[in-house]
Known about the structure:
This protein is mostly beta strands. The protein has one helix at residues 204-207, and strands spanning 2-5, 13-16, 19-21, 24-28, 32-35, 38-40, 43-47, 56-60, 63-65, 68-72, 79-83, 86-88, 91-94, 99-101, 104-105, 120-121, 130-132, 135-138, 162-163, 182-183, 185-186, 193-194. It is globular.
Amino acid sequence: MEYFAGIYSDGPLAFIDCRFYGGAFADLLVPMAATNCLFHRVALTLDDLSFLAPFEVQVRSSLFHGGKLDVSSYEAGSLWAFQNNLFDRTLIVTNTGTTNGYNAYTTNVSRLWPITTGDIVMATSNLTWQTGPQGIFYLPTNSPLVNAGSLTNAALAGLYHFTTLTNQVIEATNRLDISWHYPAGSGWGLSFIVTDSDGDGLPDALEDKNGNSVYDSGVGETDWRAYNSLLGIGSGPGLVVFTPLK
């Protein structure tokens, strides 16, 4: 797969809870935000083309597994922020500084610069991932990346209903984990069901669209803690069967 976003493309680009597998992703002058995304063996290029206007990129709480990150900026005004991301054996090539912090890297690989506080360099070049109900990139419960992010409350990152662990314990208001997050639930594979606390058929992560755990009525949300029937039948059973008297 190859994706190109250039100066004449529609924009800005916003990716939330997305997965990108293989291929190349080039962004030239299009503002982009990527939150909680998986870049699996992807070559991501950011370039402001030197002679044109700067643009803004924010990449947060994402996982780069293998692949390459090429950051080329020649304009002082370009703001490229990377925070709370995990780079697993990713080749990073950059000629410019970024706004970064609380990123994690496997050992003996290139890093974003300038080097800032909160970064974690893992003691191994071969991370031990755990396979869970939705994929192969869950963290072990004893990982140094758990509760290691920049935010003391994961809900501030919109990840209240998400998890990095196979035990499906949600981030809630705990300190943010560094890495890609899965929506929490139960079951496995095709039988996996995203958590629906109020039993109305709408997953918590869908009802609480911004993931902050608060019911915000003005942004098209429904309360994930209160039954909201799509048919308006209330919180009782939708169908009651009576047995005729004999």
